[in-house]
Specification:
heterodimer, A: alpha+beta, Immunoglobulin-like, Serine Threonine Protein Phosphatase 5, Tetratricopeptide repeat, four-stranded mixed β-sheet, four-stranded antiparallel β-sheet, 11 helices, 59% helix, 12% strand, B: mainly beta, Methylamine Dehydrogenase, Chain H, globular, TPR repeat (chain A), Dynein axonemal assembly factor 4 (chain A), cytoplasm (chain A)
Chain lengths: 424, 361
């Protein structure tokens, strides 16, 4: 139950009402006071004072002063009139209730409107500030653009000037050229004349532009000396060839520093893949590390072949094939060894295996395929299977049409075949 | 468009004219002693295109268009006289042709020089620059570099080819240099595996080689007609090297300074004809960088064994500008007007630019 404060005192003038409300020791803050057009309430729990005013007041301008245990209200009347009493008498409960609620609603609306107004003004201020900065920046930009434009125009003008001089120079030259056609003077003297005119024009031109006059002299000097030079141009150089070695590079693409790491990794992987494929052969345990590397074995085989040790080479290649049977070059080289050893059937087998592995047919393995065909062809011929041999030589010729040796051999075989056919 | 700073004294790159083309332009060159420029390239139907433009105010006027059976990769005026101004071109089929632009139906000189595309061409001895016979050098994907004399048909006067049995590398760029008298001449070639080789044509031998670890896109001497002074080599990965060519050490070769300009390939380098210490590089990101080389206090010093070795200077960036989103593959300074240059990019546009304030450097 609130405790009603009733010891208020008031007096009035035509335009204002002065209300004094003593607080019984309670502390009041602005939050405790609620005032609207026709309703005034002070609520400091447990104390309560409310008054439904006789007539509407202007609540925005009215004030309340808190101090000395007292609240002093200065309420400005809406309409200047003398009030009979402070509060509305004969107000029934419902009307009071209604007025109270109305008052609260009205206060809320006012508060909303105030915040709205504040927001709007804030936005407008912001907009204004933004526009001002934009204007400043525009001005700056325009200044820079103007500078650039001026440069551009200056430069364009100079260019026009230079161009007009070029045109004059050209015009004179064309007139001179026509003169050439009509006259019949020795070509040498004629050329000298033309050049002299040109130098004169050039000299005039140079004095107008910013080219230094010395350049004009140089021009004429060089043209005169060029004249002499033309009659004395050295003979064409004696043809020669310089052989060039390139820094080795595996990939056909250009070298880029950023890709070097990737490329190294790829090459490393390739090398790894070519090493032991079937590593579970028990005999491999007593081989040395390098002997397990098919590439190393291939190199060893090649060396032995070069030295004439064909059996040793075949052994090396055999071991390499056991380690990695997917390398066509091993079969190719082993075929060559077998040819030398006159193991012709084995040579044919190996060349065939090599050709199988050398599919697909790409320019990269052209050399290898030519060799395979040539070796197989030779083996066939030595077995007197000339038609098969010819087939191989022709295949080799198809891959590499410019190889004279293959052509010669193919011719020989053709003759042999014709010879045997005639005789049989 | 550009990130150029508008400082008071820095050179500015002003884009003067932009011309859209209906074909891919591979090379653009100024016609000497004129305001005309040539664009060489490949049309969509696989034929070669040569277009001759003239600069008129703020636009380019097409004077002539010539179509050839094979796409054209590169061209040069370097080996013709000023009166004739014949254009030497290399095409995608390996043919070297020299054309008279007044009568372009039949070439003045033609040879099937290489088995594969001619990537790069250079000429020396013409235009009043350099002494000695006019010669053209071509570098091709078949790994060979051949020097031709227009007076001798069918066979080159020098052939730099791989050793028998060696796999070939793409030659991407060639340049002449050291042509200061009638006998001396040098050809520098850059390959896709990063090799740079210097061939001496007087002794017909390899004078120097090195590997810069990235494919070499473009090499150029600062001047063809003087005792070789500087060589700039640009490569993939945004790097370029400037070699001081005055002092050759027996083992260490030439001293160099290298700079990494941007993340993308540097397609071309071109020195300003009027000032041999200023050069422009064009990049795969469509940007152009203008550089200045500063010489060191002493250009050579003695090493621990008393041999002379060169000292490289330093390179500073004067200006950079981004013109396009596609690589700028070709660049040419006008030999007549300082600061005027043309560049062709893979977005099928050719642009004429003016670089200002080059006098103040």
């Amino acid at each position: 139950m609130p405790v009603w404060l009733r010891e208020h005192s008031w007096r009035q003038t035509l335009t204002a009402v002065y209300l004094s409300l003593p607080l019984r020791g309670a502390r009041a803050t602005p939050a405790n006071i609620f005032c609207s057009e026709q309703y005034l309430k002070v609520s400091i729990p447990p104390f309560l004072f409310e008054a439904v005013l006789y007539a509407p007041i202007d609540d925005t301008n009215s004030t309340a002063k808190i101090g000395n245990g007292n609240i002093f209200f200065t309420l400005y009347k809406r309409e200047p009139a003398m009030w009979d009493s402070l509060t509305l008498a004969n107000a029934d409960k419902e009307k009071l209730q209604y007025l109270r609620e109305n008052a609260v609603l009205k206060a809320q609306e006012k508060a909303k409107e105030e915040t709205e107004a504040k927001k709007i003004t804030k936005q407008e201020h912001k907009k204004y500030a933004l526009e001002a900065t934009m204007k400043l920046e525009e001005a700056e930009r325009k200044r820079i653009e103007d500078l650039k434009e001026k440069e551009r125009q200056k430069v364009a003008k100079e260019l026009e000037l230079w161009k007009s001089q070029q045109k004059d120079g050209d015009k004179y030259k064309s007139i001179q050229k026509e003169g050439e056609l009509h006259q019949e003077i020795e070509p040498l003297k004629e050329r000298k004349n033309e050049k002299m005119n040109k130098t004169r024009i050039l000299n005039e031109g140079t004095s107008k532009t910013r080219l230094k006059s010395t350049k004009g002299c140089h021009g004429s000097c060089s043209i005169f000396s060029q004249n002499l030079k033309e009659e004395q141009l050295p003979a064409p150089r004696v043809a020669a060839t310089i052989k060039v070695n390139f820094t080795p590079r595996v990939f056909p693409t250009a070298l880029r520093e950023s890709r070097v790491a990737e490329e190294e990794e790829w090459l490393h992987k390739q090398a790894e893949a070519r090493r032991i494929i079937n590593s579970d052969l028990s005999e491999l345990e007593d081989l040395k590390e390098e002997e397990k590397n098919p590439d190393w074995l291939k190199d060893k085989g090649n060396k032995m072949f070069a030295m004439g040790d064909y059996l040793g080479a075949v052994n090396a290649y055999n071991l390499a094939v056991r380690l990695n049977n997917k390398l066509p070059l091993l079969y190719l080289n082993r075929a060559a060894c077998h040819l030398k050893l006159r193991n012709l059937h084995k040579a044919i087998e190996d060349s065939s295996k090599a050709l199988e592995l050398l599919t697909p047919a790409v320019p990269d393995n052209e050399n290898a395929r030519v060799k395979a065909h040539v070796r197989r062809g030779t083996a066939f011929c030595q077995l007197e299977l000339y038609t098969e041999g010819l087939q191989d030589f022709e295949a080799a010729l198809k891959i590499d049409p410019r190889n004279k040796n293959i052509e010669k051999d193919a011719e020989k075989i053709r003759h042999l075949i014709q010879g045997t056919m005639q005789s049989s | 468009m550009s990130a150029a700073t508008v400082g008071p004294e820095r050179p500015q790159v002003v884009s003067h004219v932009q011309q859209a083309l209906s074909y891919t332009v591979f090379d653009c060159k100024w016609v000497p002693r004129s305001a005309r420029l040539l664009c060489l390239g490949s049309a969509a139907r696989g034929t070669g295109v040569v277009q001759l433009y003239e600069l008129h105010g703020a636009r380019l006027e097409l004077l002539r268009e010539i179509e050839k059976p094979k796409p054209i990769k590169c061209g040069t005026f370097g080996a013709t006289s000023l009166q004739q101004r014949y254009l030497a071109t290399g095409d995608f089929d390996g043919n070297l042709n020299i054309w008279n632009l007044e009568a372009p139906e039949i070439p003045v000189y033609s040879v099937k020089g290489h088995k594969e595309i001619i990537n790069s061409i250079d000429g020396v001895g013409g235009l009043g620059i350099g002494e000695g016979a006019p010669e053209i050098v071509t570098g091709s994907r078949d790994g060979t570099v051949k020097v031709w004399d227009p007076r001798q048909s069918d066979t080159p006067v020098a052939n730099m080819e791989p050793v028998q049995g060696e796999s070939k590398r793409d030659c991407w760029t060639v340049a002449f240099g050291n042509a200061y008298n009638q006998e001396e001449r040098v050809v520098c070639a850059g390959y896709d595996n990063g090799d740079i080789k210097l061939f001496d044509l007087k002794t017909m031998s390899l004078r120097w080689e090195t590997n810069i670890k990235n494919g070499v896109c473009s090499v150029e001497f600062d001047r063809k007609d003087i005792n070789m002074n500087k060589l700039v080599a640009t490569s993939l990965e945004g790097k370029f090297h400037v070699f001081d060519m005055r002092t050759q050490h027996p083992t260490k070769g030439f001293a160099s300074v290298s700079e990494k300009a941007q993340k993308s390939t540097i397609w071309q380098v071109r020195h300003l004809p009027q000032n041999r210490d200023i050069f422009m590089t064009s990049g795969g990101s469509g940007s152009l960088h203008l550089w200045k080389y500063e010489y060191p206090a002493q250009r050579s010093k003695k090493d621990s064994e008393g041999c002379e070795m060169g000292v490289a200077g330093s390179v500073s960036l004067l200006q950079n500008v981004t013109l396009s989103t596609q690589p700028i593959s070709s660049l040419d300074w006008s030999p007549d007007k300082k600061g005027l240059c043309v560049c062709g990019a893979f977005d099928q546009t050719v642009r004429v630019l003016i670089v200002t304030k080059l006098n103040k450097i």
